[in-house]
Design brief:
By secondary structure, the protein is of the alpha+beta class. It contains three helices and six strands, in the order βαββαβαββ. Helix content is 25%, strand content 22%. The protein has a six-stranded mixed β-sheet. Bound molecules: tetrahydrodeoxyuridine. The site of tetrahydrodeoxyuridine has 13 residues, from strand 2 and helix 2. Tetrahydrodeoxyuridine (THU) binds next to strand 2 and helix 2.
């Protein structure tokens, strides 16, 4: 028996204005997408913007449904759209912003577990890491260099 420890690392920015100009632009596009979210049930709007290796940016937002589980998160809408449009182009970065229309969210909104698993699939497929930036309506932005920092022990398709 042995005890093994692992660590994750992330960078914390006090505000989105502290991001580099290109990362700020990616986050602005995520925020614009967030403001087009279809979320009449939760009133929680999420937007994501994915930067691809060919320079294209694809955005997505959460899409809800009266049959609640039939809805979809912003991150998966964005990355699946990117994969549908540019199937062989690597994903370099993903920016995410979430806000409630009922209260102020001033802490970072991190990707849900299912989205982490989906993002991890694309890291495995493309054999390179995806930088993830996430924030709330205002306040800090967290950046990880890889989905691995958010999801240790992801299920890996190579096992199948
Ligand atoms: N949501 C996302 O879009 N991404 C996440 O990572 C977490 C949650 C959406 C799903 C639902 O429409 C709303 O936020 C409230 O859970």
């Amino acid at each position: 028996m042995k005890k093994i420890e692992f660590s994750a690392e992330y960078i914390e920015y006090d505000d989105k204005m502290d991001l580099s100009s290109s990362d700020k632009e990616l986050m602005s596009l995520a925020i614009e997408a967030r403001n087009r979210s279809y979320s009449p049930y939760s009133k929680f709007s999420v937007g994501a913007a994915v930067l691809l290796d060919n320079g294209k940016i694809v955005t997505g937002n959460n899409q809800e449904n009266a049959a609640y589980p039939s809805g979809m998160c912003a991150e998966r809408v964005a990355i699946w759209t990117a994969s549908a449009m540019y199937p062989n182009v690597k994903v370099v970065k993903l920016a995410l912003s979430g806000m409630s229309r009922l209260k102020l969210v001033n802490t970072p909104v991190s990707p849900c577990g299912a989205c982490r698993q989906v993002l991890s699939e694309y890291e495995s497929k493309q054999e390179s890491e995806i930088e993830i930036f996430f924030t709330g309506e205002e306040g800090k932005v967290i950046k990880t260099n890889s989905v691995k920092d958010l999801l240790p022990f992801s299920f890996d398709g190579s096992l199948i």
